[in-house]
# Entry
Amino acid sequence: MEFYIRPIEIGDGKGINVLRRMPGVFENILGIPSEQLKRNEDFIANLDANQHQFVAVARSQDGQEVIIGHAGLTVYPNQRMRHSGGIGIMIHKDYQNQGVGSALLGRLVDVADNWLMLVRIELTVFADNARAIHLYERFGFEKEGVKRLAAIRNGKYEDEYLMARINRSNYNPQS
# Structure
C-alpha cells in the first residue's frame, strides 16, 4: 500500500472528521461518534505556531485522495514547559498495522528532535491498546504512570497510561 505524509491543510476537516467518528478509531481516542464537522474545521482554521499537524494520504480505488491517518504535536506554550510537547495519533481502521502509525510517529519525532529541539514528548493511551503501546515503545516512549478511570469508553471508565520519550541529546540545562 502506498501513502504519503503531508502537513494538514484547511480542506482536511471532513477527512479528519470521518476518522474521528469511525468505529475502530473513536474508541481509542478521546472523540465521540457524534463529533461535528465544524469542530474539526475550526480546529484546523485556528492552528497556531505551536501546533504541528500531519495527515497520511492514500488513493482510493477510484483515484480520490483519502486521509488514512492524522497525527499532531503541540508544543506547550508555558515558558517553563517550552521544552515539552504532547502528541496524538489516529489511523483509519482499514489501514492499521500497515506502517501508517510508524510513519506518522516518525514524522512527529523528527520534528520534535531536529526542528523544535524538544527534550520531552508525551501522550496518553488506553491501557488496553497493546498495538499502540508497542508502537510507542519502539520509538523510545516509556510508561510513566497510570491515570486511573481517566476516560469513558463504551459505557465504562477506563485507565490510560501516561507515556513519554526523553531526548537527552537535546537537553541543555544552561538554556
About this structure: The beta strands are 4-7, 51-59, 65-75, 84-91, 120-126, 142-153, 156-166. The mean pLDDT is 94.
